Amino acid sequence: MPDAVATLRLPPRMHFGYGARAQLPEAIHIHGRRVLAVLDPFLLRSPLYGETTDALTAAGLELRVYSDITPELPVDTLDAAGATAREYGADVILAIGGGSTLDAAKLIALLATHDGPLSRYYGENLVPGPVLPIVAVPTTAGTGSEVTPVAVVTDPARELKVGISSPFLVPAAAIVDPEYTLGSPATVTAYAGIDALVHAIESYTARPLDITWPGTLPVFTGRNALIESIALQAARHLGPWLPVAVRQPDDRQARAEVAMGALLGGMAFGSTGTHLCHALQYPIGALTKTPHGLGTGLMLPYVMDVLRQDNDVAERLTALSTALEGIPVVTRAAEINREIGIPATLAEIGVGREQLPQIADLALGSARLLAISPVTPTRDLLLDILQRAHTGQLTEERTA
């Protein structure tokens, strides 16, 4: 592969498997004693909460709990939480929760170390240096935030959610114990899991970027030779097992398979980036107030249906089809959506045909995501995808 390029920025320590939470005291202790535990408020009602905190205090760690986490992550609450972390003198941030909780922990670690307001760091590579170490423990299988360099917030001054991307936001440790995901509601499992599959597919189909080695690299570097096998493996775990985890929430093997797929998907897109499903979801989600994973999952078959007209994308979708039990990607993505309850069309979630041009225009503003689209993301292309997604029009597949 003479033209292959790759960059990986991952936690130096990752543990996966039932019981992996037993590694938490050691993973935290190497960074200090004073722990700000940023926890999903739902965890406080779980038996695992007491077990986890008892193990940490027994190991001599001092805990302060912060659980004022909301799904939209309003920026003003994070500014206040950063001040709390500074006043407490935290040595390390422990994050246990879903994607919003892990993102909140990253931004609290940032504001505990560097002056606010948070808005000064919107965009890429604007975090000036290391943040407090973060030990990340996901309780949903989807965002991959435990291994990625990005966090997303809601700023009332902006039309869309805002991302802060920096290698300094990659956690110091990721501990993925599927036990934390048992009992997750079916909709949470479905929306998080399909988003993980989108991560795998979009990272594998990303455009190669022209990388200039001297100087600061972009956070997301496009097609990445080191993650291609990881993305395919993520699809192998998610494709067969996500519907099982949604139907049978206590199936321990299904939970483990989906958790592994989400972890691998996060490793893949955290280096490569995502593209059109995500660029389109942000305005769709803002207009309809629907969950992120619902939107990316809904858009996945339509985006890939249009992109596979490109020969290079079609070749990559053939490899992905092999990972998805030999079923063509567009067909299998649509099947999985039906099986797990993702709406089939934009019309079903309240999008009017007259809103499609506005969505396309807003999506065109997502420069980072569009930069790694495997085909040139013109307004006409985005409108074509949106119109298909509005009516449910998919091309009959003969090959992947």
Q: Layout of helices and strands, plus pairs?
A:
Blueprint: E1 13-16, H1 24-29, E2 34-39, H2 47-58, E3 62-66, H3 75-88, E4 92-97, H4 99-111, E5 123-124, E6 134-138, E7 150-153, E8 162-165, E9 173-176, H5 186-204, H6 228-247, H7 252-272, H8 276-288, H9 292-307, H10 311-323, H11 329-340, H12 356-363, H13 367-370, H14 379-391
Parallel strand pairs: 1-9, 2-3, 2-4, 4-6, 5-8, 6-9
Antiparallel strand pairs: 7-8
Helix pairs in contact: 3-4, 5-6, 5-7, 5-9, 6-7, 6-11, 8-9, 8-12, 9-11, 9-14, 12-14
Protein name: Alcohol dehydrogenase
GO molecular function: alcohol dehydrogenase (NAD+) activity; metal ion binding
Domain Alcohol dehydrogenase iron-type/glycerol dehydrogenase GldA: 11-178
Task: Describe the structure in your own words.
The chain has 14 helices and 9 strands. The protein is α/β, with parallel strands linked by helices. It folds into 2 domains: 13-181, 3-Layer(aba) Sandwich (Rossmann fold), CATH 3.40.50.1970; 186-391, Dehydroquinate synthase-like, alpha domain (Up-down Bundle), CATH 1.20.1090.10. It has a 6-stranded parallel sheet, with helices on both faces. The longest helix is centred in the middle third of the chain and has 21 residues, at 252-272. It is globular. The two termini are 24 Å apart. 52% of the residues are buried.
